[in-house]
Amino acid sequence: MRIGIDLGGSKIEVIALAEDGTALARRRLPTPVGDYAATLDAVADLVAFAERETGKAGTVGIASPGAESTKTGLIKNSNSTVLNGRPLRRDLAQKLNREVRIENDANCFALSEAIDGAAAGARVVFGVILGTGVGGGLVIDKRVLVGRNRIAGEWGHNPLPWPDSTEKLDAPCYCGKNGCIESFLSGPGLARSYHAATNSEVSAPDVVARAASGDELARACMRVYHDRLARSLATVVNIFDPDVIVLGGGLSNIAELYAALPPLIARYAFSDVVDTPVVRAVHGDSSGVRGAAWLWPPAAD
After folding, report:
1. CA 169 → CA 111, 160, 172, 177, 203, distances in Å?
2. What CATH number has the domain bearing residue 173?
């Protein structure tokens, strides 16, 4: 049995998966905000729950915001800041008395969709999370490619490609640089784009809703969003040429993305023909926790 834990900013979720991917048990608890020791306790409680419910012991995989530093073994780049600078894998291994595997939550998302989700059967899968931030993960032959520095897939912190004159204005990112893809394609980025055109303070879902109801300024804003997303994904296609691109996160619910993006990506990518499918995640917000469980692959793989 495989146990997955998703360490979210507002909730911690556990799932227990059978060998065929069937969910045997699941539960969510509120995240103890700002309390590292309580976070470790919550994970231990959820693992104990899963094993009580199933009557089986399981391997444990963790989907965590941020990544584990190859230099120190400590968590870095996490927006759940209480985890930063902590030896999370070591502490959980001691608490649970077993080996624990940890991966970035976007990597877990991509792995879940590659194994038994929207990209099942594809060899090279790029998973994208479009939400409060912009994350990404690359899976090849059902294995996460983490890279030498454990930052593979972090496309959101590259510059927006082929910017026009308006996009060359300062767009500060929390990473300390300007003009990152995340600054334009995240939910807050979409809201800022609409505000720049209308001086209206609305959320990204409101922009999408206004566009759907016929608001011309919102519709124009969404066309710009589609184009920026396509430019950004074209650079991914140029480097990795994935078999499938899977979208997740709140903005993946924009239905028109799936028809709009492929021809736009083809316009920017370096090939005479680009037919890369862009699909919506099957497992939704459960992809992270399922991918965490799949960090322990079948023995025959």
Report:
1. 36, 12, 9, 12, 22
2. 3.30.420.40
Q: pLDDT tens-digit profile of 202-242?
A: 999 999 999 999 999 999 999 999 999 999 999 999 999 99
Q: How far apart are alpha carbons 242 and 228 in whole angstroms?
A: 19
Specify the pLDDT at position 299. Answer: 57
In a domain, 73, yes or no: yes
Q: Are residues 273 and 289 in the same domain?
A: no
Q: How far apart are CA 255 and CA 251, in angstroms?
A: 9
DSSP code at position 82 = G
Encode pLDDT of 242-300 as tens digits.
Answer: 999 999 999 999 999 999 999 999 999 999 999 999 999 999 989 999 999 999 986 54
Q: Are residues 126 and 272 in the same domain?
A: yes
Cα–Cα nearest to 161, from 181, 188, 177: 181
Domain co-membership, 130 together with 268: yes
pTM value is 0.93
